[in-house]
Prior knowledge:
- By secondary structure, chain A is α+β, with helices and mostly antiparallel strands.
- Chain A has four helices and ten strands.
- Mean pLDDT of chain A is about 90; it is low at about 1-5.
- Chain B has one domain: Cytochrome c oxidase-like, subunit I domain (Cytochrome C Oxidase, Chain A, Up-down Bundle).
- Chain B has 16 helices and no strands.
- Chain B has helices at about 15-20, 25-30, 35-65, 75-110, 120-135, 165-195, 205-240, 250-285, 295-305, 325-350, 355-380, 380-390, 390-420, 425-455, 470-500, 540-545.
- Chain B is globular, with a radius of gyration of 24 Å.
- The model of chain B is unreliable at about 5-20 and about 555-583 (pLDDT under 50).
Amino acid sequence: MGIPGVARPRGIARFVLLGGLALVLGGCTLPTFGGFRGATTQGQTEFKLWSWMTIAGVVVAVFVWGLILWAVLAYRRRDPDKMPKQFQSNGPVEILYTVIPLIIVGFIFFYTVVAENKVDAISPNPAVRITVTGFQWGWRFSYRNASGKQVALVETAQPRPPLLAASPLSSEYPRFELPLGETTQISLLSNDVVHTFYVPAFNFGRQALPGVDNKFDFTPVQTGVFVGHCATYCGLYHSEMLFSVAVVTPGAFRSWLKAQSASGAAA
Amino acid sequence: MTVLADRPEVFDDDAAHEHVHAPSGFLKWVTSTDHKVIGKNYTVTAVIFFLLAGAMAMLIRAQLANPDSTFLSQHTYNEMFTMHGSLMIYLFVGPVAFGGLANYIVPLQIGAPDMAFPRLNALSYWLYLGGGTLMMMGFFTTGSAADFGWVAYAPLSNSINTPGAGPDLWIVALVLTGFSAIFTGVNLVSTIYYLRAPGMTMFRMPIFTWNMLVTGILILIAFPVFTSALVLLWCDRHLGAHIFEVQGGGMPVLWQDLFWFFGHPEVYILALPFFGIVTDVIAVFSRKPIFGYRGMVFATISIAALSTSVWAHHMFTTGVVLLPFFSLMSYLIAVPTGIKFFNWIGTMWRGSVKFDTPMLFCIGFLGTFLVGGVTGILLASPPIDFATHDTYFVVAHFHSVVMALVMGAFAGFFYWYPKMTGRMLRESLGKATFWLMFIGTNVTFDPQYLLGLKGMPRRIAEYAASDGYTLLNRISSVGAAIIFVSVALFVVNLIVSWWVPVPAGDNPWDAATLEWATSSPPPHHNFLKLPPIRSRRPVWDKNHPNDRIIEHAKPKLGGMFATPGGAVLLEDVGLDGGPEAER
Lengths: 267, 583
C-alpha cells in the first residue's frame, strides 16, 4: 500500500543534498562547522573526514527532522471524530530503512579506517623525538636524540599554581617547539594519574596512561603558536595544566634547541 | 518455554478487600511490598535526586558564566561536577525508569497482580535509598564528597590521590545501588517471563514492557561487572591490592575497560525504557497501532546486543584498544536506532496526532535525540574522537542524549500520573514545562558543541578571558536557567494537582494497553477484572471494536512464535470472529 505524502519530504531532502553539494563544490573549500582545519598533516586528514561526515550527518538529520515535522504537522488531529486507518506495517519500506543505513555505515566505516590509518601512522625515522610526561599538574617535554639521550628539556615551572585563569600562551606555562614540515614523534608517558595531551589546533588528543608508552607523529604544516590542555580530569588543578606549542621553521628550531641545550636544561 | 500465570481473572470484591488491612499513611510507605507503592517511592526519591543534581548543575553553570571565575573554589567545582554526574546517572535517570515507572507500570501492562518477588522489590528500593543517601553524606565528611568525576578513573581514585571518607562513601553507595539495580533486573525479567495474564503473549506485550525486559537483561549483564569493579577499587584503596596501579603490577587502564564495559550498556539501560515510553505514547496520541512493532522489538534486542561490544569507543584516545572493531560496532548501533526513528515516524504517519503534554515531550525527545545520535556517529569515528574527546563537544553530545531521555521521562510522568494518582496534571503548565525545557536544552547544549570544537576541555573549573569561551558559556548558562524554570513549573504543577485535584478517570488518553483497563489508581493486586487479551491493544479492542488493524500481508512468521498452547498466532489474527467472551 503506497503512502501518500512520502514524495514531498524526499523532494526536500534532494533539495538539501544538492544545495549542500553546490555549496561545497562551489566554495572549493570544505566547511569547518566550527572545527579546526588542522595545523598538521594528521590534523588535516582528520578535518576532511570531520567535514564530510558532518555534511552527511546534517543531510540525514535534516531529512529525518523533515519527516518528523511533516508527520506532526500534516497529520495533526483536525477532526476528533475521524479515526485514522489502523495500518501497522509496510514490509518494503521497513526493509528500505534498514538496508540504506547499513550501506551508509559501510561507507563511513571505510573512510574512517582510511583516515585513522593515516592519523595513527608512525614514522620509523622521525626528524625529532620528544618524550612528553604528564604529571600533577604540568608537563615535561624532553627532546631526545636517536639513541634516546636527552638533549633539551622544557617543563612546567610551578606544578601547583594558584588560580591563574591565564591563557595557555602566557609565560607561566611551558612552551615547546616543533619544526615546520618535519615529522616529530612524541612518546607520551604519565608518572601518576591519567592525563590527556591535547592540542585543539592539531585535532589531536591522546591519553598519558601510567604504564603505557603512547607514540604518535605530528608533521606541522603551518607556523604559529598553538594552545594545549590536559583534557582528562586529573585532580585539583586540572584546569591549570596548560602548555603551548610553537611551530617554527627548521632553522629557527635548530637554534632554539641549541640554546635550550646550552642553557643547561639538558641535565 | 514460557509459563503463564495461573490465577483467578475475576476477584471477588469482598475477597479483594480482605487484602487491604495493610497499614496506611507513613507505615504503608515504609513497609509495603506492593509494586505500586514501591514504584511511587522510587519515582519520588529519584525526582528528589534529580532536583539536587539540577541545583548542582546551576552552580556549575554559574561558575562557568564568567572567565576567571572565583564563584566556586576549584575543589568545590570538582565535587559539583562529580556529584552532578553521579546523581543524574546512578540515582536519577536509571532508577526513575527501572525502579520507578517500570516498577509501577510493567505489572499493570501485562495484567500481573504484582512483581514476581515483592520483598526483593522492597529490598531494591531500600538499598537504593540507602546508597543514594550514603553518597550525599559525603558532603558532611571532613574531606569532601567524591571529587574524581563520575567515572572515577584509576589511579586518580586511589587512596593517595583522593583520600578520605567521601570517595569511600561514593564507592559503597554504588555497590549498594548496584545490588539494588541487579535485584530489580531479576524482578523485571522474572515478572515479564512468568506473570503475564492469559492471552498476553510475548509479541502482544506493549513496547515499554518489551524494552524493560531487554533493559532487565542488560542490567544483569552490566551491573555485576561494575559492582565487582567497585569492590576491587575499594580493595585498592584499603587493602593495598594494586589492581589498578602500575606499582605492584596492576593496570590503570583495566579500570577504564571494566567501567565502560558497564558504562556503555548503562547508556542503553538508561535509554531503552524511555524509547519504550515514547513508542507507546506516540501510538496513543496518533490513534494508531505501533508501526513496525516486530522491527521495533528486534531493533531493541540488537541495540542491547551491540551495546555490549562498543565500550572501548570511550577509550579511543587511550591508544591501547582495537579502533576499527569498536568503531564499526558503534556505527552499527545507528541502524537499529534509525529503524526506531522511522517506526516512530511511521506510527504518526497518516494518524491523528494530538498535542497533549506527553506527546509534546515525545516530539521533543525525537528532535533532541536525533542531535545526540548524529553527533554520536561522529564521535564513533576514532580520528574525530581524537580531536574532540573530553572536550565540551562530548559533554554536549551526551547531554543531548540525556536531555532527550529526560523529556522521555517527563512524557512518562505526564502520561502515567493520572493512572498513578487518579488526578490530571494541568495541561497549560505542562505545555509551558515542555516548551521551556525544549528551548532551554538547545540554548544550553548547542553552544557547548561549538565550545568543544574550539578546544574547551571538560571538567575545567575556570578559563581565561583570552581563551574566547566567554560568550558561548554565557549563552549556555542562560539556557540552564531556562531549564531550571521549566522544572520549577513541573513542581508547581504537582502542587496544584495535589491541592485542586482534577479527577482523571480510568483512561483519560483513550490509550490502548492493559494498564488503562483498571481504575486510577489501581486497586490492591491491580485488576478486579481483565478484558480479553486478543491483540496488542486489549483496551482499544474493547473501546473501538470497529477500528481494527488492517493487515498489509498475510503473516508469514505465524506459528514460529506460538504460545504454549500452540493455538494463538502472534499476529493480530483471531480478532475477527473470536468470541468476545468476558473472562
